[in-house]
Specification:
The complex is a heterodimer. In chain A, strand 7 (249-252) and strand 8 form a beta hairpin. Chain A is of the alpha/beta class. In chain A, the strands form 2 sheets. A 9-stranded mixed β-sheet of chain A has the order 6-5-4-3-2-1-7-8-9, with helices on one face. The model of chain A is unreliable at 351-369 (pLDDT under 50). Chain A has helices at residues 3-14, 47-59, 78-87, 103-111, 126-133, 138-151, 170-180, 207-214, 217-220, 223-227, 276-282, 284-290, 313-318, 327-337, and strands spanning 19-23, 64-68, 91-96, 116-120, 156-161, 183-187, 249-252, 257-259, 269-270, 342-345, 348-351. Helices cover 35% and strands 28% of the residues of chain B. The two termini of chain B are 18 Å apart. Chain B has 3 helices and 6 strands, in the order ββββαβααβ. In chain B, a hairpin with a 5-residue loop joins strand 3 (22-27) and strand 4 (33-36). In chain B, the strands form 2 sheets. Chain B has a 3-stranded antiparallel β-sheet. In chain B, strands 2-3-4 form a 3-stranded antiparallel β-sheet. The radius of gyration of chain B is 13 Å and the shape is globular. Classes of the chains: A alpha/beta, B alpha+beta. Chains A and B meet through helix 1 of A and strand 2, strand 3 and strand 4 of B.
C-alpha cells in the first residue's frame, strides 16, 4: 500500500473529507464542445463566502484542495482565494486553461506554493484545439501559459481529453508535453451535461479507439498491468465502496452547493443554508450514499467485473440509479480487459450484448440466455 | 549540524494538516508526502524557529516518550535532515524569524 493509499484509508476510517474540489465559477472564456457545464455566473459565492467555505472545510479536515471552474482566473479574487487556502496550509492544486497566465500570474502561483497546475490541452494542432475550445488562438495562449509556469518551476500537468475531434492526436500531444517538460495524462471520459443533456456523449471515441489508447504504453504505462483484471480473490470486495466520493472526497459548486463529486450532481446541502461540517456529517443524501456498498447494487454485485471495475457512482446517478451500473464504466472495463461483461441472474449467467457490451439486464427467471 | 546548535522552523512552502493523531505534510516544492507519527508531530509542532532542537527533544520527546536522550537526538537529527531536503523544515544555527520564507 502506498503512503497516499494509507492516508486515504485513515481518512476513510475517520470520516474526513480529505480531498475537495471547489469550483469558484462556472464562467469560462472557452466553450469546449465536450464541457458538462452551462457557464452561468448567476449566484456565485462572494469572496467572503468562499473563504468561509474553505475555512469550514479545513476545520473538517480537508487537506488536498483543487480550485477549478469554468476558468477560475476569470474571478478577480482568484489569487486572494488561493492565498487564503495556502494560509491554512492546505495543499492546493489549480485547474485552468492557462490562457490568462502571464509571467506575473505564474510568478504569483509559484510564490503561493501552489502544488500543481492542471491544464486541459486537446491537440498539438491549432485548428483542432481551437475548434474544440471555440476560442481562436487558445492553443497558443495555453502553451504560452504553460511556458510561463515552467519558467517559474511550477509543476504542470496536461489533461488530454479524448474525443472524436482529436482522435489519434494523443501521441503528438504527449510529445508536446515532453517538449514542454510537463506531466501528461489522457482522460477518456465525456460525461453528460449537468442539465441532463446527453447529446455530447456522441463525442466519445469508438471502442476500437479506446482499446488502442488503453494499449498504448505512452498513455497507460505498463499495458499488461493496466489491462489485467485485478484478482477477485478478495472476498470482501462486495463490502467495498466503488469510489471515495462522499467518503473522503467532496465537491463545492460556485453557488455553495455540496455534492459528493463534480461528476455526481446529487445535492447534499448548501453552504448558504448550513455549515459544511453539519452537511458532511448528517446530510440525508450523504448518509444514503455511504450506506451503499457493492453488495447493495443488484446488477453490479453480480457482474464478473465487480472486483475491479472503476464504477463511477456519479455517472450511475446521472443515468438514473445510484445503485445501478454506469454504462460508460461497463464499456471501459470491457475494453480495458477484453473480458465480456457477464451478469449472474438467478441460476443463469448471461453474456451481455449491445452498446458498450452491456444491456440493462431485466428481471430474469433463470431461463436460458 | 549538531542538535545543540540547531534551530528549526516550519517552511511556508509546506502544506500540513492533522489526521487523527498523525500529521500529514506535503512539500509544495517536490510534492513529496509524509505522514508523521506522534513523535514527528511533536517535533513539527515545536518547530517555531526560536526553540533549539535540543530543547525540543528534551522537553517534547524524552519527557513524553520512552526513549533515551541519545537515541532521541540521533532520530531527531535524521528526521530534520530528511524534511529539510524537501523544503518542509528550515534549518539554521541561529534563531529563525517568524514565518520564514525559503
Amino acid at each position: 500500500m502506498s503512503l497516499l493509499d494509507e492516508v486515504d484509508r485513515k481518512a476513510m476510517a475517520l470520516g474526513i473529507p480529505l480531498n475537495a474540489q471547489l469550483d469558484i465559477t462556472w464562467r469560462c472564456n472557452e466553450r469546449c464542445v465536450h464541457c458538462y457545464l452551462d457557464h452561468e455566473g448567476a449566484g456565485e459565492m462572494t469572496t467572503a463566502e468562499i473563504k468561509d467555505a474553505i475555512r469550514q472545510m479545513h476545520e473538517s479536515g480537508t487537506f488536498f484542495l483543487s480550485v477549478s471552474g469554468g476558468e477560475p482566473l476569470l474571478r478577480r479574487d482568484c489569487f486572494e482565494i488561493l492565498e487564503y487556502a495556502r494560509s491554512l496550509r492546505m495543499s492546493v492544486k489549480l485547474k485552468t486553461n492557462a490562457t490568462m497566465i502571464g509571467p506575473k500570474e505564474a510568478a504569483r502561483i509559484r510564490e503561493l506554493g501552489i502544488g500543481e497546475v492542471q491544464i486541459s490541452l486537446y491537440s498539438h494542432e491549432d485548428e483542432v484545439h481551437d475548434t474544440i475550445t471555440k476560442l481562436p488562438g487558445s492553443l497558443r495562449r495555453t502553451i504560452e501559459g504553460i511556458r510561463n509556469l515552467t519558467a517559474n518551476d511550477v509543476k504542470v500537468s496536461i489533461s488530454n481529453v479524448l474525443m472524436t475531434h482529436n482522435a489519434g492526436h494523443g501521441l503528438a500531444v504527449k510529445q508536446l508535453a515532453d517538449e514542454l517538460g510537463v506531466i501528461f495524462h489522457i482522460d477518456p471520459t465525456i460525461t453528460p451535461k449537468l442539465d441532463g443533456d446527453r447529446s455530447i456523449l456522441s463525442l466519445n471515441i469508438s471502442e476500437n479507439q479506446l482499446e488502442q489508447a488503453y494499449h498504448t504504453e505512452e498513455f497507460v504505462g505498463n499495458v499488461g498491468e493496466f489491462c489485467a483484471p485485478a484478482s477477485s480473490a478478495d472476498t470482501d470486495y462486495l463490502d467495498n465502496y466503488s469510489c471515495s466520493a462522499g467518503h473522503t472526497y467532496v465537491y463545492i459548486s460556485p453557488t455553495g452547493e455540496v455534492w459528493p463529486c463534480v461528476q455526481f450532481p446529487m445535492k447534499c446541502g448548501s453552504l448558504r443554508e448550513q455549515k459544511f461540517g453539519e452537511i458532511w456529517r448528517n446530510s440525508p443524501a450523504f448518509t444514503e450514499l455511504r450506506s451503499v456498498h457493492l453488495r447493495d447494487m443488484p446488477t453490479c454485485s453480480q457482474c464478473n467485473h465487480a472486483s475491479y471495475c472503476s464504477r463511477c457512482p456519479g455517472l450511475a446517478y446521472v443515468e438514473g440509479d445510484l445503485r445501478g451500473p454506469s454504462s460508460k464504466d461497463c464499456r471501459d472495463s470491457f475494453v480495458r480487459t477484453g473480458i465480456p461483461v457477464s451478469i449472474q441472474t438467478g441460476t443463469t449467467s448471461r453474456v451481455a450484448q449491445g452498446a458498450y457490451g452491456l444491456v440493462q439486464i431485466a428481471a430474469a427467471t433463470g431461463a436460458g440466455a | 549540524m549538531t542538535v545543540e546548535t540547531t534551530y528549526i522552523a516550519q517552511s511556508t512552502a509546506a502544506a500540513s494538516s492533522t489526521l487523527g493523531d498523525d500529521t500529514i505534510i506535503m512539500s509544495t516544492k517536490d510534492s513529496t508526502v509524509f505522514m508523521l507519527n506522534s513523535v514527528g508531530t511533536a517535533i513539527w509542532k515545536s518547530a517555531d524557529g526560536a526553540t533549539p532542537l535540543a530543547r525540543i527533544v528534551a522537553d517534547k520527546i524524552c519527557a513524553e516518550f520512552d526513549v533515551s536522550s541519545e537515541q532521541a537526538m540521533t532520530d531527531a537529527k535524521e528526521f530534520v535532515e530528511k524534511l529539510a531536503q524537501h523544503g518542509i523544515l528550515l534549518v539554521s544555527t541561529e534563531p529563525l524569524p517568524p514565518n520564514p520564507q525559503n
